[in-house]
Write a structure and sequence with these properties.
Endonuclease Iii, domain 2; 12 helices; mainly alpha; 50% helix; 2 domains
């Protein structure tokens, strides 16, 4: 009779015959005499968490000493480091910097000659409409929003500052499309006002070099400004951009022969 519901069937007590093959579990049987496969060790890469711990353990004095050696190397590499945005005056630099957000300097430089030929100053640009400006910058990312911003910016420059670019970070940041980074770049490149603006290149290098574990650009800039002499802040900004753009790139940094390799806390990760 079949067993009652809920009861387990009793074991038959039958012993397996020696000729019967054992049941497999889905794994291939190992051949006799084969050695276990050795595990391939993965290269050790410093994680952001590990770097953060090292940052906490390094004294400010030691970090400044490393920064000094990095600065010396950058001065050898890029003695005339400057912005690669083409401009002839502060107004053009301001407009070009606004246009460079989430775009390459090269793409901006291709568009601005015709733009500035048509709108050479704030008064001329203030009289235009965004739709009239769009064709000049349509090869730049987010060109519609940027066309609107630079027209409004020109109008505010004309209304509040007589068309001149103010040499004041707070007043610059009141203008459409101008944030902390743009204001810092313009003040440094156009007027020599000390400051280290932080873009994607500097964010990457500050982490790789172990100079900052922050994620916010303004906080990274503050960390960098603690390490370098004030009169070299503008140079450091431009030199690190060039180094990040052409040497310590995001995906495949050129570590072989790198002049600051010994100062880098990410060495060996690539």
């Amino acid at each position: 009779m079949p067993g009652k519901r809920g009861q387990k069937p009793k074991a038959s007590g039958r012993k397996p015959d020696a000729s019967e093959k054992p049941r497999t579990t889905g794994q291939r049987p190992k051949a006799e005499g084969t050695k276990p496969r050795a595990r391939i060790a993965k290269p050790e890469v410093a994680s952001p968490k590990a770097l953060g711990g090292r940052l906490l353990r390094e004294s400010l004095k030691a970090k400044k000493a490393r920064a000094s050696r990095v600065l010396a190397a950058l001065e050898q590499l890029y003695p005339q480091a400057a912005t690669e945005l083409a401009h002839t005056n502060p107004f053009e630099l301001l407009i070009a910097t606004v246009l460079s957000a989430q775009a390459t300097d090269a793409s901006v430089n291709k568009a601005t000659p015709a733009l500035f030929a048509r709108y050479p100053d704030a008064r001329a640009l203030a009289q235009a409409t965004p739709e009239e400006v769009e064709p000049f910058i349509k090869t730049i990312g987010l060109y519609r929003a940027k066309a609107k911003n630079i027209v409004l910016l020109a109008r505010q420059l004309l209304k509040r500052h007589g068309g001149a670019v103010p040499v004041d970070k707070a007043r610059l940041r009141e203008l459409p499309g101008v944030g902390w980074k743009t204001a810092t770049v313009v003040l440094g490149a156009a007027f020599g006002v000390p400051g280290i603006a932080v873009d994607t290149h500097l964010m990457r290098l500050a982490g790789r070099l172990g100079f900052s574990s922050q994620k916010d650009p303004e906080k990274i800039g503050a960390d960098l400004e603690k390490l370098f002499p004030r009169d070299r802040w503008v140079f450091v900004h431009h030199a690190l951009i060039l180094f990040g753009r052409y040497r310590c790139t995001a995906r495949k940094p050129h570590c072989q022969g790198c002049p600051i390799y010994l100062e880098c806390w990410s060495k060996g990760a690539w």
